[in-house]
Amino acid sequence: MKNNVKICLTLLLSLILLQACQEKQKEDKIVEDAEIAEVKETIVAKTPPMGWNSFDSYDCRINEEEFKAIVDYMAEHLLEYGWEYAVIDYIWWHPEPGNWDTPRRFGHPNIRYNEDGSPLYPEYTTMDEYGRLLPAVERFPSAADGKGFKPIADYVHSKGMKFGIHIMRGVHRVAAHNETPILGTDVTAKNIAEPFDTCGWCNHMFGVDATKEGAQEYYNSIFNLYASWGVDFIKADDTMFPPYHDEEIEMMHKAIEQCGRPMVLSLSCGEAPVSRAEHLVKNANMWRISADFWDEWEHLKHSFDLLNAWSPFIQENHWPDADMLPIGKISLNNRPHGPERMSMFTEAEHYTLLSLFSMAKSPLMMGGDLLSSPESSLKFLRNDEILYVNQHSVDNRQVVRRNGHVIWIATDPANGDRFIGLFNIMDEKSTVSFTFEDESIRGKYEVRDLWDKKDLGVHETEFSANLRPHEGRVYRLKKAD
C-alpha cells in the first residue's frame, strides 16, 4: 500500500513538473515569437543608409588596426552628419588575401583546387566546425578564441556607430568538400551545395539548393552567428548578377527575421533587374542597381538612366542603391580597380555625383580611404543641406532630360519646399533652366543654392544656372511671402 502511495505521489509530482515545463516552453515560445515579430516589423533603414565600405580603397586586405582607425575618423568627423555604418568588405576569413602572386592566391577572382574539387591550401580558409566562415586572426587578432567580429562590433558600437560585413552567397567549397555538419540538423554542407553554381568572378562559394533539407537552417546558422557578433549590416554579394538568385535572397531574409537582431540587408552586385522590383522590395533594404561604379564619367552618366528607371521604387526601408562613392584616395596598392590614385572625377563631377545620389535618395557609402584623402574630397561628405535632401525629401523623380540637360525634383515634407537638381551632362558649359510651370509651381519663390549655402533672391516662372561641363547643383525653392 505504501509503495502504491509512493508511486502515485511520484507520478503526481512528475505530472506537475511536466506541466510546469510545458507552460515554460509555451512562455518561451511566446517570447521568441514576439522577438521575431519585432525584428520583422523593425524599420532598419528608415532613411537611405550612410557609411563607409572598405572595398574601393582596401579591396579585401583591410586589417583590424586600419579598420579601427577608419572608425575613429568617422566618429570624430562624419558621424554628426549621419555617416554611421562602417563595413568590412569581402574575404575577411583569409589570412593574407593580398598575396596575388603566390600559390596561396585564394580570393578574387578564383581559387585553385585539385581535380577532385578539393581546394589547394584549405588551411587558408578560417571557419568553425559548422562550416561558418570566421575572421582570420592574423588580420583581426581580437577574433581569437572564437570571438569572431564581436570585439570589433563592440568597438564600433562604443563610438555610437553601426557595424557591417560583406558575405558571398552560398556555402564555402571547403565546407562542402569536408562535409561539415549544418548546425541543428543531421545533414552536411555537401548535401545543400550546388557545385555547378559558383560566382563568375569569385568561385570560392557554392550556391545553396533551397529545396534541400538543411538549406534554410544553414542560412539561419550563419545569420545567428552574425547576430551574436552584433552585426547591423550585411552586404550579400553575387545575389543578382545573372542569374538572379531569388531563393537564396529569400532564405537570407528569413534568416534575419529569425535571428533576433535587426540587420540591414544590402544586395550586390547589379544591375538589378527592374522586373524583380517587387521581390526586392519584399526581401531587401537596399539593392545594387548598377554594376561596379568607378570614377569614370561614363559610369556617372549611366547612373542618370538607372536612377530614373528605379525612382518609382524609392520608399522607406527599401532603397535602390547606385553603389559606393569612389572619391578621395582609392585602389590602394593598385587594387581593386586600376592603379592607386585620387578619384578621376573632376570637381564638377563631384558635385554631380553627390547631387544626383542625394536627389535620387540612393544609399551613400563612401569608398575612398578616409585616412589619406584630402579635404578637397572629404568636404563633399559634410554638407548638411545636401544630405538633408538625401535623407528627408520625398517624391523624388526626374522631370526633364533633353539636349544634354537633366532636371530632378523632390519635396521637403516638413514644409512643402521644393528641391530641384540641375545637371549639365554635356562636355561644354551650358545654362540649365527650370520652368516652374512644368511642375505647376506658380508664384514667387526664394531660391537657395544648397552647395554654397547662399540665397539667390526671389524668382518667378523660371530659374537658371550656368554650369560647367558635367556639373550638377541642388537648389531649394521656398514660397516667397
Radius of gyration over C-alpha positions, nearest whole angstrom: 26 Å
What is the 3D shape? elongated
Q: Helicity, in percent?
A: 25-40%
Strand content: 15-25%
Flag low-confidence runs. 33-39, 100-107
Largest sheet: 8 strands, parallel
Distance N to C terminus:
99 Å
Supply the helix-strand structural class. Answer: alpha/beta
Number of helices: 13
Strand order of the largest sheet: 10-9-8-7-3-2-1-13
How many individual β-strands? Answer: 21
What do the pLDDT scores average to? 91
What would you say this structure looks like, in words?
The protein has 481 residues and is an alpha/beta fold. Helix content is 32%, strand content 21%. The chain has helices at 2-41, 55-58, 64-77, 150-158, 173-178, 189-192, 215-229, 246-259, 277-283, 297-310, 347-359, 375-378, 384-392, and strands at residues 50-53, 85-88, 162-168, 171-172, 193-194, 205-208, 233-237, 264-267, 286-288, 319-321, 329-330, 341-342, 364-366, 394-402, 405-411, 418-424, 430-435, 444-449, 454-460, 462-467, 471-479. The protein has an eight-stranded parallel sheet. A six-stranded antiparallel sheet has the order 14-15-16-21-18-19. Helix 4 links the parallel strand 2 and strand 3. The radius of gyration is 26 Å and the shape is elongated. The protein starts with a helix and ends with a strand. The model is unreliable at 33-39 and 100-107 (pLDDT under 50).
